[in-house]
Design brief:
single chain; alpha+beta; MutS, DNA mismatch repair protein, domain I; Alpha-Beta Plaits; DNA polymerase, domain 1; 3-stranded mixed sheet
Amino acid sequence: MDAFFASVEERDHPRIKGMPIVVGADPANGKGRGVVSTANYAARKYGIKSALPISRAWELSQQAKKAGRPEVVFFEPNIKKYSAISHEIFTYIGTLGDAMEPASIDECYLEIIDTSGTSKQVGKWEDAEKIAREIQDKVQKDFQLSCSIGIGPNKLIAKIAAGRQKPHGLTVVREAVQEFLDPLSVRELRGIGPKTGAGLQEIGVETVKQLRQKTKGDLIAHFGVKHGESMYKQARGIDDSPLETSREQKSSGSETTFDKDTLDPSEILGTFRALSEEVAKQLKKSAKRFKTVSIVVRFSDFQTQTRSHTLEETSDEKTVLETEALKLLLPFLDSRENPKHKKIRLVGVRAEKLE
């Protein structure tokens, strides 16, 4: 889906059609504490994008206003509404192919099985393009929204292709997979974020073609077996991961951003206990037991740290979850994990390895 949350709000509020729209935390006149969830394409022209601090989005909006451009319209997320629309669209898409995997609230994979045993069968590619056009037309007509679609021989290529012509684009990659991949930035590949991207840059790799020129041994030596082999395969367009038509819940968590950066133990611990209780309720509702407890701490400078502990046996007890989470958190309140005594912006609790 194209700028899904923002597009839904634009659709539901005709008077702001064509305006720059941001869905995210309350900007609070530039003092907001959260981040941007979704920005429509008009807002992206201002430099606003997902995960940008909402305070910075507000600043960019005000700069645009001073320059005589439209001010950004801010919305807080309505996940219940977005989820209902997503469910309707995915239910429809699921009737069109042989298997469908929801990847997130606004993205899914649809598989068209080639019974001939070769991905070069002309009929199947034409079928896939026909289905893609049908999906776009249906989403536009029935939901007044747009989506971009990529067609490829596997999930990796289809995913990248879907992002090449936004909004309302359709990109098809048949046999010329390497030709399609080579010019792209390595950041287009799965699992290559800022840190790994910087590591690749240090060894002279910025494009997929440059990555492909590295041996598997080179990549494993620099990034370990798992990441090295993954990058080696992806650079060649290799992806044999199947569609996961039913996803088992693997974790449950909750996090919050403080109204003001703090090192006040009573405020942090009180918030942390409330988060633990919320996670425990989620687990009870889904009848799940956990094996691993993890926490996330984000400092005022946006440095983010995670810590985790795996139990000897699974548990569903709130006291166990809270106790183990607090053990991981407490070092961040003193010099053990926070030697510079930086204030804390966000904390989170997560129960993992659910059974």
